[in-house]
Write the structure tokens for this entry.
Amino acid sequence: MKKFVSLGFALVMCLALMIPAIATEETFETENSALVPTVEVELPSSGLVILNPYGMQYTGNAMDGIAANATSQILSNIFALTNKTKGAPLKVTTTVTAVAEGNASLDPTNTSIASTDKANSVILSLTYSIKGSATALSTTATEKKTLQLTGSEQNLQDKDGKDIVLAAATESANTYLTFQFSGSANTHPETPWTEDDTVGATFVFTFEPTTETVTTALSAGS
């Protein structure tokens, strides 16, 4: 009798083991996000270009950033693009297009005004620098570059012809792309200069966080 009971239990166990398992499914989803820099820049608050063909003494407001009694034929304050972007370097693609109004005309090729020139000619140049400040160009020759403006769109680039890459800002320090105009004008034009004769420029900036190497030189220096 006991043998039959044991055999019965064994059969029940075998049948239990043969019951197919019921599959279960659970879902888990990751939390997805991206960590990227927030582009934060401050454009120059003012960029002054004063045509002063007769070399008069400048008596404007000292807050303009132009030295009192300056007599340069092109008077300009120092102004800067301020980079506040943290976490990654910032590529700054920059174009500048010089403009002349009234009788003023840009001389895109000569480096000085010829004595025979009778036009209201202006030689306008832009100096730009990295590693300066909001109010000062860099004093290191390789960290600045001077470009004679032609009136056509021109790119501001480093010594290798690449777009400028500014170092990332930190909690305690921003980085800058700093500018100042200079140049000369004809002192003996056939048509006298008037207050309607002016020169200036339009800048266009494009910003992009990058892993490219930060720009360390704009020119070979001198």
In short: The longest helix spans residues 2-17. The mean pLDDT is 91. The radius of gyration is 34 Å.
